[in-house]
């Protein structure tokens, strides 16, 4: 009789089977609720399509970008940077001008847009630019393609030199150099400006801005009576459609 009672305890009843069935159904429902990898991939594709549609509407994002020829990717940014500094210099020191091709202009030039300057014989690396004038020299160029919109960076070297004034016999050239140091910092502040396409008439404002880092000043170079210094600035610009 005891052995028969033990066997009866081991036989599952109908209620136990029904409970196990309910647990199995709940586990199956939970498994159905867990998203699979294909669902995540589909959501990523939807976000990419939304980003492409936003780029087509806004004009500065999109899957396809038209690349410029040669170094034209940065040309609008270079022009905008130069015009911004020239405008600020006119407001900071209107007396700093240069007579160039029979025209009085603000005392700031772009080396690649003017006749070649003579190189210094001392091997300092600085060209013999006109004194008391800022000269922009464009150096390296880099493009970051790991973004939705390509980011282009160009290094600009601003070179300036002075002999002092004739009224003081050049003995004030140190003060003149300090004055140009301060003017350059004021010209670069704030560190951004609107980007324009100056190839069109009138110039057309674009959708993004040009921005840059703080300048890095180099040690002053003495060439007899001439004092020369340069400051390097990294200038950035997002490449818009058509650039």
What does this structure look like?
This protein is of the alpha+beta class and 243 residues long. 21% of the residues are buried. Strands 3, 4, 5, 6, 7, 8, 9 and 10 form an eight-stranded mixed beta sheet that branches. Strands 1-2 form a two-stranded antiparallel sheet.
Question: Keyphrases for this structure?
Answer:
two-stranded antiparallel ribbon, 243 residues, alpha+beta, eight-stranded mixed β-sheet
| Mean residue pLDDT | 78
What helical percentage do the residues reach?
25-40%
Strand content: 25-35%
So how many helices?
Answer: 5
Basic shape: elongated
Q: Note the main sheet.
A: 8 strands, mixed
Question: Structural class of the helix and strand makeup?
Answer: alpha+beta
Task: Spell out the helices and strands N to C.
Answer: HHHHEEEEEHEEEEE
Low-confidence stretches: 30-37, 43-70
The whole-angstrom Rg is 34 Å
The first-to-last residue Cα distance is: 96 Å
Q: Find the count of extended strands (DSSP E, 2+ residues).
A: 10
Write the layout of secondary structure elements.
Blueprint lengths: L1 H9 L3 H20 L3 H22 L16 H18 L4 E4 L2 E4 L1 E3 L23 E11 L6 E12 L10 H15 L4 E6 L6 E9 L3 E2 L3 E3 L2 E13 L5
Parallel strand pairs: 3-4
Antiparallel strand pairs: 1-2, 4-5, 5-10, 6-7, 7-10, 8-10, 9-10
Helix pairs in contact: 4-5
